Amino acid sequence: MKTRRDFLKILMAGGAVAALPVASREGRAAPDPDLILRLIAAPDRVPIWRGAQTRVLRFQAQVIQGRSDAVREMSSYLGPVLEFRRGERVRVHFENGLGEPSIVHWHGMLVPDTADGHPRFAVDGGESYTYDFTVRNPAGTYLYHPHPHGSTGKQVYFGLAGLVIVREPSERAVGLPDGENELHLVIQDRRLGDDNQFRFRRMMMDDMSGVLGEHVLVNGKPDPAFRVAPRPYRLRLANVSNARIYKLAWSDKNPMHVIAGDNGLLSRADGVQVRPYVVLAPFERVELYEDFGRRRSRREFALMSQEFSGGDMMGGMMGEGMMDEDMMGGGGMMGGMMGRGMMGGGMGDMMQGMMSGGQGKELLVARFTVSGGGRARADTLRLPGPAPAVGESKHELYTRLAFRHMRGSLNGRTFNMHSVADDEHLPLNEGTVWTFSNDASGMMSMSHPMHIHGVRFRVLERTRGKAPEDLRDGLIDVGFKDTFLIFPGEQVRVLVAPTEPGLFMYHCHNLEHEDGGMMRNCRFG
Ligand code: C2O
Ligand code: CU
Ligand code: CU
Fold first, then answer.
1. What 8-state DSSP symbol labels residue 147?
2. For residue 391, what pLDDT is reported?
3. I want to staple 86 with a disulfide (CB 3.0 to 4.6 A). Which of 168, 297, 305, 402 is the partner?
4. Domain annotation covers residue 490
C-alpha cells in the first residue's frame, strides 16, 4: 500500500510536479477547455460468448461539455473511441471506480507530463484525477489505457483500453475514405477459462512470454466479420494485446498498403508502404488504405496473423535447451517458480501453452466479405509533405535491454517507483540519437516492443540481418513511431526530439515485462 507520505515523496522527487498543489492531484489547468469528458473505470459484465456474461473492467465516458460526437460507444468491454481534433483543449475527469489504484495514460499523445498518466500519479479506488491537455498530435490513431505500476497488464487484459482518433481538416486533402468507409480494428487475444471468463496469468511462462491467448477478439468481439462495400477503405489497426505480436496479411495474398504508422500519416517522402504483411507489436498501430473494389463481389477472405518462428524466447528455448543458467541458476527465484508452476504439473501446461496459443502461431483475426453493388473509383492519395527535419543531434543516449531470471531490465535495473535518480535526460526541442541494444546472450533472448512516452520519434536504423527473416518485410520503420519492436541481438537507433518538458518514462510494452519493471523514467528538458 502506498501511503500518503510516499506519495508526497514521489511528488517531491518529481521536481517539475512539486510546484503543483498536492491535494488537487490534477494536471496543469488549461483555461476554458473546448471539450470536457468524464471517464470512469469500473467493473462490469458483458455478453461476449453465448452463455454466461464475462466479468470485465471497463471504461465508460460521457461528454460534459463540447462536441457530443467526441465519444463513440463500442458495444463491448472496450472503452469508447474518443475522437479529438487537433488543437482542441481537452479536459478529462477520470474517476477510478476500481477497488485498486489506477491512472490513465494517453499512449502516443504529446501531453504535459502531469497529464501523461505516469504511475506516480495513480489514484486509489474512489478517487479521481483531472487531465488537461491540448491535442498536439497530427491526425492519427492513438490509445488510452491504465498505467498503475505492477497491474497495467491485468487492468488492460480485463478490458481497460480504448482508441483515440485525432482528426484535422487538412486530412481531407489527402483523399482518404471516411464515414462508413473507415473502420478500426482493435486486435486482442484472450485465454478463455471456465464459464466464459477471461483467464489472466496462470503460470510462470506468462511472466516471461507475457500473457498470450488463443482467442482473437476484434473491437471486443469474437469471430469478427466485416461486410465491406467494393470501394476504398481506411482501416485503422491497433494491437492492444498484452504480449502477442501479429504478422497481419490478407488470406487472398493481396499486399497491404500502409499509409500511417503509430503516430500519424506517412509523408510523401516516406510514401505508401506496400508490403506482403505487416508486423504489429503490442500497442503499435498502422493505418491501411485498402481498395476492396479490387476484389470480386461476395468474395470472402480474411485478415490473418501468419505463422512465424522468429524472435521470441520459445525459439531460443527450443534451440538452446531448457538447462540454461538463467533458469537453473541458484537464485531463490527459481524455487518459487517451481513451486508455482513448472514442476508442480506446470510443465504440461507450459508445453500446451506453447503449442496452442504460443507466439507466432497462425490465427484468424477477422473475416471480410465484399458486398455487391457499384464500385467507386479510388481517389489519388496525396500524402502530406514531410515534417520539418530535426537539426543535427549532438546528444546520444544508450539503453541496454536484458532478460534474466524471468525479468526484463533496462540498463541493468528494474523500475523503482520511489526513485527518479536513474533518469535518462533528453534536451527539449533538439534531437537525441537514442540507441537501444537488445542483449541476446542466454536463452532468455526475446523481442521487446519498446515505447517512449510523450514523444513521437523516427527509427534511424536497425542492425542489419538480425530481424528474423520471416518478419523482416513487415516492419514499418518509416514515419513517426512511439513504439518499436527490437529483436534479440539487435540494435535500434531512434531520433527523439521531445517537446514537452518534465518527467516521462520509457518501457517495454509487453505488459508483463512492463509490470515486471522493464521500465525507466526519462526527463525531458
Ligand atoms: Cu502504452 Cu507507458 O504506455
Ligand atoms: Cu505511452
Ligand atoms: Cu519486453
1. -
2. 72
3. 168
4. yes
Q: Which residues of the chain, if any, have pLDDT below 70? A: 1-30, 310-356, 422, 441-443
Specify whether the CB–CB gap between 176 and 290 falls below 8 A. no
- Print the domain residue range for 481: 395-524
Count of other CB atoms within 10 angstroms of residue 67: 13
Structural domains counted in the chain:
4
Question: Domain check: are 45 and 144 in the same one?
Answer: yes
Residues 6+ apart with CB under 8 A from 264: 137, 138, 139, 140, 456, 479, 480
Is 507 touching ligand 1 by the criterion CB < 6 Å?
yes
Measured over the CA atoms of residue 10, residue 57, residue 448 and residue 342, the dihedral's sign is positive
Q: Are residues 495 and 418 in the same domain?
A: yes
265 and 363 inside one domain? yes
Q: Are residues 363 and 214 in the same domain?
A: yes
Q: Are 233 and 377 in contact (CB under 8 A)?
A: no
- What CATH number is attached to the domain comprising 226? 2.60.40.420
* pLDDT reported for residue 29: 57
The pLDDT tens digits for 294-350 are 888 788 999 999 999 865 554 444 333 343 334 433 333 333 333 333 333 344 444
pLDDT of residue 345: 38
Residues 291 and 418 both lie in one domain: no
Looking at the structure, tell me whether residues 318 and 264 fall in a common domain. Answer: no
Q: Ligand 1 within 6 A of 105 CB?
A: yes
Nearest residue by C-alpha to atom 3 in ligand 1: 107
Evaluate whether residue 152 is within a structural domain: yes
* 8 Å CB contact between 487 and 379: no
Centre of ligand 2 from the C-alpha of residue 109, in Å: 8
- Rounded Cα distance between 214 and 208, Å, is 17
Atom number in ligand 1 closest to CA 107: 1
pTM over 0.85: yes
User: H or E segment at 134?
Assistant: strand 128-134
* 443: in domain: yes
Q: Is residue 253 part of a domain?
A: yes
**For ligand 1, is residue 233 a contact (CB within 6 Å)?**
no
Q: Starting at the edge strand that comes first in sequence, how are the strands of the sheet with 54-65 ordered?
A: 54-65, 35-46, 89-96, 128-134
Q: Do 365 and 432 lie in a common domain? A: no
Amino acid (one-letter) located at 423: D
Last residue of some domain: 145, 167, 189? Answer: 167
Q: Is 453 in the pocket of ligand 1 (CB under 6 A)?
A: yes
Q: CB 178: neighbour CB atoms within 10 A?
A: 11
Establish whether residue 283 lines the binding site of ligand 1, counting it when its CB lies within 6 angstroms of any ligand atom: yes
CA 90 centroid distance within chain: 22
User: How many Å from the N-terminal Cα to the C-terminal Cα in the chain?
Assistant: 32
Q: How far is the CA of 455 from the centre of ligand 2 (A)?
A: 9
Q: Which ligand is nearest to the CA of 284?
A: 1
Residue 423's pLDDT is 84
Is residue 359 a contact partner of residue 189, using CB atoms and an 8 Å limit? no
Q: 486 forms bridges with which residues in the sheet?
A: 448
